[in-house]
Specification:
cyclic-di-GMP binding
Length: 88
């Protein structure tokens, strides 16, 4: 479940990077519609529920090793951003 959640975090971070680029093209590409740009950058009908399911499954199946969920998510986000930045 952690692997799937890391993949969903990657898709979310990639969408945020795409949205940061597409903000400058709102008028020319999307006729001023922020929602059209948002839907072009994120596939919310698939990644939103998948992120919710993976996150809740990870919380439910997490063992009592004492490490915080925020630390796991932070490290996964950092690793996925590094992979995205290096083009791996």
């Amino acid at each position: 479940t952690f692997h799937f959640m890391a993949l969903e975090i990657k898709a979310l971070l990639k969408g945020i990077c795409y949205l940061a680029e597409e903000i400058f093209h709102l008028q020319s590409r999307y006729h001023g519609s922020f929602w059209r740009a948002l839907s072009a950058c994120f596939s919310l009908h698939w990644h939103g529920p998948m992120l919710l399911v993976c996150g809740s499954a990870y919380v439910a199946l997490r063992n009592g090793d004492g490490q915080l969920l925020g630390l796991h998510l932070g490290l996964a986000s950092f690793c996925e951003l590094l992979i995205l930045a290096l083009g791996l």
